[in-house]
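re: ur question from earlier - yeah i can do the single chain one, its not a big deal. heres the input i used so u can compare w yours
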Amino acid sequence: MKLLASLNPIQIALLIVAGLATLGVIITLVRSLMTFAGFGEVSAAAKQMARAISGEAFRDGPDLVVSGKYDGSPVVARFSNQEHTPGLNLRMAAPATFQLSVAHVSKPITEGGKNQVRTGNPRFDARFTMQTDRVTEANMFLNASVAGRLQQLACSNNTFVSIGSGAIEVSELLIPPDTGQHVMEHVQAMAELVREVRKMPGADRVKLVSIAPERQVAGRIAIAIGVVLAVVSIFAATKVPSHPAFKEVNATLQNGIPPSDALLLHDAEQWHVATPDDLDPAAAAWLRNQGRTPAGRIEADFSGKGEGTDVGYLLIGPEGRRRIVMLANHANVLDGEMVNVALIAAIPKYAVPRIQWKGGMPPEDTLGDGLLVLQKKGDGQTSVIFFLSRSGIVTGAPIDYQQINLQ
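and the output i got, formated as C-alpha cells:
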C-alpha cells in the first residue's frame, strides 16, 4: 500500500495495463486448453485449418468447431467424439437451387429427393448412390470436373455428401488419419464445387445466411474495462475533461437491444430493432389473427431448454439494410443480412408436425422452436424457418406460411 501511495496516477495506470496484459495471456492459455481438451489428436489439424481459413477454433458443447472463410465462402468444420455422431462434419455455404445426396450403396439416403442420377463413372456409380429432387439441374451440374470432386469427397464407405439448403456438406463417421491434410483437401474440393454451383441458373438469386460462431468475450470485456479505467484515471489526474460515461450503453438501450444481447452482436450500435412500421402489413395481420403481436424482437425457445433467454431479431441498419439474428443458449447462432425481410415470427415446436413442407418432410433433429423469416420476392413472398439442431442451423420451407396454425 505504501508503494502504491508513492506512485503517481500515470504509473498506477501503467501497472494496471501491465497486469491486465498478463491476465490476457493467462486467459488465452486457459481458453486454448479448454478448447482442445479431449481432442489432442486433432488439435494440430484444427489449428492448421483455422490459420488456412482465417478463422478460429471454439467449443460447441462437447464438439470442437473451426469456423472461417475459404475462397470467399463461409466454412465450418466440426469434430466430435460423441457416439452416433459423425467424427468429422464439413459445411461450406453454396447457393444451390437443388438437392443432391451421395452415400455408399449400403447406406440408405433419407434426404435429397428420390430420383437417382449417375456421374458416368462406372466404378464410382457401382459404389455410391446419388439422389436428387431435380433431375435436370443435377445432370447439368454433374460435369466431368464435378464428378471428380464428388469422387474425392466420397472417400470411404462411411462418408455422406449432400448439396442443398444453402450449403455443401460432407460427413465422415470417423475422424480420418492425417487429419489436417485430409480436411484441407476436402475444403479445396468443396470450394471447386461451390464455383460450379454458382454457374447454375438461378444461383444468383439464392441469399446465403452466415452463421456466426459463439464468441468468448468475457475475458476481453474484463481487459477492455480495465484499460478504460486506467485511461480514465490518467485523464482524471491531469484534469482533462472526459466524454460522458456510458454513452455507448445508453445508445444500445435506445435502439431496442438490451445490453446483454448487444454483447453478442457485432456493430450493435449501428442497428435498431424493426418497428411495426417496418413490417409487411398483410403478414402482420396474419400474425395478429394468430394471437401474436408483430415485432422486430421476439422471445422463443430455440434451444429447447425452456430457460426463457432465447430471442430472434429483425434489425434495421444503415441504408435500410435488414439483418436476421437468432440468440440461443446465451450464444449468437445465426446472424446475417437478408434482403426484403417482411416479417419474423416464432414457430412453436408443437406446431411443426402440422406444417406442410416443400419436399414433404420437416427438418430433422430440431431442438426447439423455429424462427420464421418471410421475404418479399417481386409480387410474391417466400418463407423459410430456421431451427437450431445439434449439428448447427437447419432450415425448412413451408408450402404456405399462412396455413401455419400457431394456436
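The first strand starts at residue 56 and ends at 60. not sure if urs matches, ping me
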